[in-house]
Design goal:
Blueprint lengths: L8 H29 L8 H26 L18 E6 L4 E7 L10 E3 L3 H6 L7 E6 L2 E11 L3
Parallel strand pairs: 2-3
Antiparallel strand pairs: 1-2, 1-5, 4-5
Helix pairs in contact: 1-2
Length: 157
């Protein structure tokens, strides 16, 4: 499954903030590694070894975000009275047990179930797109088949 390249403006801003924080953290870690390296034998210097490992992790994340920025698209979402769910919509739905859930359909880079943001590339996100209130959808998830009924669709928080 490939990642979509869509992201909301809020998602873009959050990635940008993360990038700035990573650069600041990298600067501090680099200074600490420099100080640890000045202490002598690097092979037995835990601060140096941990610092280098931390710097590699930061560099990997910076590289990933930098590559994503090159392909990410903030779609122009027209303010519409559409009753259909699409990227950026807030969709409330019930599962077969009657439990209600409300999520915003977002891109892969900003998906976070705890923040009620559902990727349009996820099994549930894919079946919710272009559906309207009252539609019943079936999603094949890693835990099995799930059936949902769409309760409401809105395009503003």
């Amino acid at each position: 499954m490939s990642k979509s390249n869509f992201i909301t403006q809020e998602g873009w801003d959050a990635l940008n903030e993360e990038m700035e924080a990573l650069w600041a953290e990298r600067k501090m870690v680099a200074e600490a590694v420099g100080e640890a390296a000045a202490m002598g034998d690097r092979s037995e210097n835990a601060e140096y070894i941990y610092g280098r490992k931390k710097m590699r992790e930061i560099d990997r994340r910076i590289s990933y975000i930098h590559k994503r920025f090159k392909v990410l698209i903030i779609p122009r979402i027209e303010k519409t009275e559409s009753d259909r769910a699409y990227f950026g919509s807030y969709v409330e739905f019930k599962d077969q047990t009657g439990r209600a859930m409300k999520f915003r359909l977002v891109g892969t880079d900003e998906a976070d179930v705890k923040k009620k943001q559902l990727s349009i590339d996820s099994p549930i996100g894919r079946v919710l797109q272009d559906k309207k209130v009252g539609d019943v959808v079936e999603a094949h998830t890693p835990v099995g088949k799930k059936i949902f009924t769409i309760v409401s669709v809105s395009h503003e928080a």
